[in-house]
Amino acid sequence: MPRTALATAALIALAAAQTQAQTPPAPNGAASAPAGAASAPAARPPVDPTAPKPFAEIIRGAKEQPGLFPVWRKDEKVWIEIPKEAFNKPFLFTVNVASSIGERGLYASQMLGEELAEWRRIGNHVQLMALNTKFRADNPAGKPALDQAFSPSLITAGPVASADHPDRKSVLVDVSGFFLGDIPGLSTHLEQVYRLPYAPDRSNSFIEATRADAQITTLTARMHFATPRIPAPPLVPPPVAVPTPPQSTPDPRSMFFSIVYNLRALPETPAAVRLADPRLGHFTESYSNLGDDLKANPRVHMVARWRLEKKDPSAALSEPVQPIVYWMDKNIPPKYRESVKAGILEWNKAFEKIGFKDAIQVKQQPDDADWDNMDATHASIRWFTGADVGFAQGPSNRDPRTGEILDADIRMSDVFGRGSRRLAADDVLGFQGHDHGSATGAWTGDRSQQLLLEQSCNYVAEQASELGFALDLLALRDGMDMNGPEAEALAQAVVKDTIMHEVGHTLGLKHNFKASTTVTQAQLRDKAYTEAHGISNSVMDYNAYNLPLKGEAKASLTNTTLGAYDYWAIEYAYKVIPAEQEAAELARIAARSTEPALAFGDDFDQGVGGPYDGFDPRANQFDLGDDPLAYAKRRLKLSQELWDRVQARPAAVGDDPLRNRRSIASSFRQLDVAATNVSKYVGGLLAERVVPGVTSGPAFKPVDNAQQREALRFIASGLLSSDSFKFKPEFLVSQTLDYNEWERGLPLSIPDAVAALQGKVLDRLMSPNTARRLIEQGAYLPEAQRKGAVSLNEVYGTLQSAIFSELKTGAEIDRMRRSLQREYLRRLQAQLNRATNGATVYADAFSMARWHATQLARELRAAGAKPGLSIETRAHLAETLDMLDNMLKATLTRT
Known about the structure:
Number of strands: 23
Largest sheet: 8 strands, antiparallel
Structural class: alpha+beta
Shape: globular
Strand content: 5-15%
Number of helices: 27
Helix content: 25-40%
Distance between the termini: 63 Å
C-alpha cells in the first residue's frame, strides 16, 4: 500500500479508537445511546479514497483476450490481468522492434534480447523484475548468499489498477503505465548516433496491438520519441565531426517505433543441458556457479540449442516431437521465396545424419495475414529495408536456465536486387559509410557481448558487394546479361547461401572463419567437386566467390550446400544421447577436431579489435582455399582486370551516372579485405584449440618464416606500389556525378581510395600488437630456429625501404606515393610518442622505430640535395624532413 494510503488508514483508525474510548460501553453489550433517543443504525466504515476500484468496475464494457496474462481492452485503454499464483513465478520477457526509422542501426525486425523475469507485488504496487542469472549456485544451500550478494533489476513498475477479483484472485495493471516508457533504452542509442537528447513522449504513444494465448501475452507499443529542438550548426567547424540529425524522417525532431513486448511462459520441464566444448563453435548461455568453492574456474557454458526429441526413440530415423518451424514473412518478394525456403531446409541434411526426419519445417505467412510474426512464438525470416543498410542477422531468444532456444527472428535487408547495386555501404572513394550496428541501447546487459556477436553478422552486406563485383566482371568478360537468367541464378544462389548462414546462427552455431581454408586450390577449380561439396567446409564462414582468373575453367561460384564442419557442429549440439553415455560420446565427437576439414576459428580468432586483432592468417573473412596469401594475390589480379574492362566500357544511353564508380568501389572493397588478410602473416601465430590432457601439440606456433617474407614482398611490391593502381586520365575526367542529388559527391579520386587501402596495411604492420608478436616470437621457437626468424627490424626496414624507394633511385614522387609517405609518417609519429608508447613492453619497438626514423632523416637530407627534381617533390621532401626532425627532438607528439 502506498505511504499516503497507509497514513490515511492510520488516521481513520486513530479517530475511531478515540471515539470508542470516549463512549462508555452499555451493559450486556447493548449499544450506548442518549436517553429517550431512537436506536440508530450502525455507522458504515469510511471509504478509503486511495483504495483501488473493484475489478468488475474497471473492466465494465471491456473485451477480454484470454491467455497467460489475460488482456482487457476498452477503447484506448488496455489492462493485463495478473493471477495471484503468477506473482514470483519466472517467465521469459523479450523485447523486439517491429518498425523503426531505417537508418544508423535503427532498423525494423530487430530482436533486442531476453530476461528471466517475474512479477512482484508490494501492497498495491507491482514490479516487473529482471532476475539475476549471471550468478547461480547449483547447491541450493548457497542461494541465500547469492541473493544477498547480487541484485536483480527493475524493468518497469506501477500501481495496481483494480482491487483483487473476489473469485479469480487476480489484479489488473494499466499497460500504458507499464510499457510506454523507454524499456529498451532507445534514447541511449539515439543519443549515440545523433548526439541529440531524444526521449519517449507518452502523450503521443499508445498500445497498438495485443495478443494472448496460454503460452504468451504480446503487447506492441507504438512509441513516439522526440527532441525539443535541433541545435544550430556551430559557427566554427568542431575538431570532431558532428553527426547529422536523422535523414529518413520528415521532421528530424520526431520519430515512431513499434516495440513488441513478449511475456512468455517457460517450459514446465526445463530442457536437458548440454555443456559446450571450445573445439566447436556454439553460442552459449553462460553463468558463474558459485555453489562450489573448490573450482578454480566457476564458469559454466551451456550450448544454445532447440529442444529436439524423437517421436520414436527406438527408430534410427524419426520425426521430432516438435519440429523447428520457420515462418517466411509475407514481405519477402515472391521471386526469392523458393531460394529462402531452400536455404532453410538445407539444414535438414545435417539433422537426418543424426536420426531426425524433417526436423526443420517452413511455413509461409499468408499475404493477407493481419498478425505479426515478431512475437516470441514464431521463428521467422523477415524482410526489411533501410536507407543505409545491407545486412542480415540471425539472433535468438533462449531460456536462461538451460540455453534452450525458444524463438529466432532472422532479418535480411533488400540487398539482392537493387540493394546490391547501391553505394550506401561503401566506405572508399569518398562515399560515406554508416553505423550498421544494432539498436541494443541499454537492454542487453551482461549478455551484450554475445548478443553483439550474434547480431553483428554483416555477411549479406559483404555478399552483396561480392555479387556486384562478380556480376560486373562476368558481364564485361563474358558478356553476361546483368538482367538475364544467368545473373538471376547467381543472385538466387546468394540468397540461399545467406539464408543457410543465418539459419545456422539461429540453430546455435557461431561463425567459423577457418572453414574456407580447408578446401584445396585444386578442388576449387574442379566443377564436379564444388557442385557436390561446395567451395568451403562450412556455410558459417564468410565465403568469397570462386571467381576464375581470365582463361581458367569456371567451377561453382558460391557455396550451395552444408560443409563437413556444419554436420559435425549439429551432431555435437543435437544428437540424442542417453544421459549415462553423454559425457563419453560428446568427448568422442569433439575429439574429431584434429581432422583438417573440421578446422574452427570464431570472430575473436578472425579479429574483433583491440588485443584480439586476429593473428592467425587462416582465420579470415572472404578468403578462399588453403592458401589465403595466394588468394589475396588473385584478388588484386581480378580487380586489375575489372579496372581495365571498366575503363574500356563505352557509355550507353540510360546508364546510371555512378555505374563505373560503383564497379570500382566494389573492387576496392575486395582489396580492402585482401590487405587485412595478407597483413596477418607478418608476425602471425597459428592458433590451435588445445584442451589440456585431451589434445596434444602446440597451442601457438609462429607463421613460417618463408610465408611471412612472401607476404611482406607482396605488400611492398603490390599493395604499396603505385604501379598496381593504373587508371587512364581520359577515363577519370569522364566520370560524372549524379546532379539530381543534393549530396552529389566530388570528382572520382583514386589516390584517396588507394590511401585508405594502404593505411589499413600500415595500421596493421606498425601496430603495437604486431611489434609485440615479432619481438616475442623467438620465445616460441627452438633456439636453433631463432636466428633466421623474421625480426621487427626486418619488417620496419622492408616497409620503410618500399615506401621511400625514390630516395635511392632519385625518381619523382607522385601524388599517390606522397600520400603513402605521409600516412607512414603519421604512424611513425605515434610510435615515437614516449607518453603512449614508452611502456616497458614496447620499449624495443620504440627504439627500433627511432632507429629507422633516424636512418630515414639522413636519406631525406641526401635526396633533397639531388638536382633535377620537380618543385613538388622537393617541397614534399623538405616538409617530410622537417616533420621527422621535430618528431625526433620532441618529448611528446606534436599536433
